[in-house]
Amino acid sequence: MIHDACGHTNVENNTNSSEGNEEPNIHATKFYKLLKDAQTELYPGCTKVSKLSFIVKLLHLKCLNHWSNKSMDELLIFFKEVLPDGSFVPTSFYEAKKVLRDLGLGYTKIDACQNDCILYWRDYANAQSCPKCGKSRWKSQEHKSKKVAHKVLQHFPIKPRLQRLYMAKKTSKKMRWHKEDNIDDGVMRHPSDSIEWKSFNERHPTFSDELRNVRLGLASDGFQPYGNMSTNQSIWPVILVTYNLPPWNCIKSSYFMMTLLISSPKSPGNDFDVYLQPMIEELKELWDGVETNDAHSKSNFLMCVALMWTINDFPAYGDFSGWSTKGKLACPCCHKETQSISLRNKLCYMGHRRFLPTNHPWHRNRVLFDVKVEMGVTPSPLTGDEALIQLQNLDNVSFSKGQKRKHNVSANAYNWRKKSIFFLLPYWKSLRLRHNLDVMHIERNVSDNILSTVMSIVGKTKDTLKSRYDLVDLGIRQGLHPIKDGDKILLQVACYALSPDEKFKLCDFLANSKVPDAFSSNI
Question: Nearest Cα to 182, choosing from 211, 139, 151?
Fold first, then answer.
């Protein structure tokens, strides 16, 4: 990658470009300094590895095998002792990381309030306690000299990694695929075929005129790093996906960019915006453009970057969008036109037949549904301007887990809990599709619920006594109503329930099915 980035530049004086090429900018110049390390022998007479390749491979082994920093320091000291005099082996893990600093692989640590009120960043960088909740920034350190923060956010800058994609000839060529090689035949194979992508081009023609401008998608989800061994810790990585690349590259993990790593005993929830501040500030800067060296065309250009949408599961959808995914108006697509009814144990969301064509026979079918005729009109999604008008009726929201939240009393604010921090991006309100649901979660949950119900798996089936009583309240499906037999309540077998023999056949089929690798999950 370093040789591709250099192109025909003279190695002895890598800041001077060859005839006919533009001089590399300051970012590329720092990157090219690594060429000297790439051609420097590890020790006099060594022909197998260079100083740079030795450090890169050693740090790679450290990550793969989970070596501690102390063991790494001791290993480097040992190498320094056994290798010939004059070797360029670093004496510590810290020195090894300094060699790779210009690659743009570093990150910054930002302390956070234990109640998620603020980040100790910019105006609060030197604060010793939270100005909102008054909690100390540090954990109790009675016998230790080093201060340890309650919570730490790790921020991985986006700009150097996007610039590095254009510093290699192969990836620089791939970053043009969405415009030069994609075939627009009406079939959506890539985000560039979507209506939202084309709509963005119409609204921002100066951005779309430069095909090298970058479009990103954001995805995030939480998980427990230690599995079921520890339930008091969760990690939320915030991942960016580069959509300029062809579809067989942009969804590969090697091209994913983790920009934030949020570690907390509990999910940040509605306070997610506190942790997104560094990324949003960087995205605002990248929208205005940053000078970048293109190794493919051997020229410099102003690279602008836009975030197209976010991708989350349904609970995280509410945390990022600001629209609560709970309650009577839980649907963010139907928004204030969500149709819901209260049953004994839960809310039930109805009105799905209005999404069918107007002449569909199911609109008037009473028997198959809830004994009602449904002739509603498909709700129109909220535009950015409409959402901002509704958000004006929302009271000021304070981010903190240590304080009681003020409940909004304005009916015109509907289900909004906050004004999302993404509206700080100058183009965000112009997007037609700002947030997406992760189809993987939907597929998994739907298929799991269907299998559990037809297999009558105890604890997982949705065909329960409570759901049968819901049918009684709705006055439908009389054949499935519970029957009282003295002190017992009998449930009639549903038509979708499998017999023991049918269950065995289904399990046998799934166990012996052979599908391509990564085609399906472990059913």
Answer: 211
Residue type, 340: S
Mean pLDDT within 474-494 = 90
Given a contact cutoff of 8 angstroms between Cβ atoms, the answer to whether 481 and 494 are in contact is: no
Determine the average pLDDT of the residues in 96-122: 85
- Domain boundaries defined on the chain: 2-103, 108-125+147-182+192-319, 324-420, 440-512
Q: What mean pLDDT do residues 215-238 have?
A: 84
| 3-state class percentages of the chain: helix first, strand second, coil last, to nearest 5 | 40, 15, 45
- Can you count the helices (H) and strands (E) in the chain? 18, 13
Amino acid sitting at position 291: E
**What is the rounded distance in angstroms from the CA atom of residue 133 to the CA atom of residue 115?**
8
pTM of this prediction?
0.83
Angle at 278 between CA 272 and CA 283, to 5 degrees: 105
Look up residue 136 and give its DSSP letter. Answer: B
Q: What are phi and psi of 53, to 5 degrees?
A: -65, -35
Q: Is the dihedral of CA 94, 96, 102, 107 positive or negative?
A: negative
List all residues 6 or more positions away from 176 whose beta carbon is below 8 Å from its beta carbon.
211, 212, 244, 296
**Side-chain half-sphere exposure of 489, counting CA atoms within 13 A:** 8
Q: Say what the pLDDT of residue 104 is.
A: 61
The DSSP result for 354-381, as a single string, is: GGS-TT-GGGG--TTTTS------PPPP
**CA–CA gap between residue 59 and residue 211 (Å, rounded):** 35
| List of residues 6+ apart from 271 with CB closer than 8 A | 116, 117, 399, 400, 401
Share of the chain above pLDDT 70, in %: 89
Joined together, the tokens standing for residue 346 give: 């839960």
DSSP alpha helices (H): ranges in 463-516?
Answer: 465-474, 500-512
In this predicted model, what pLDDT tens digit does every residue of 41-62 receive, in sequence order?
888 888 888 888 888 889 889 9
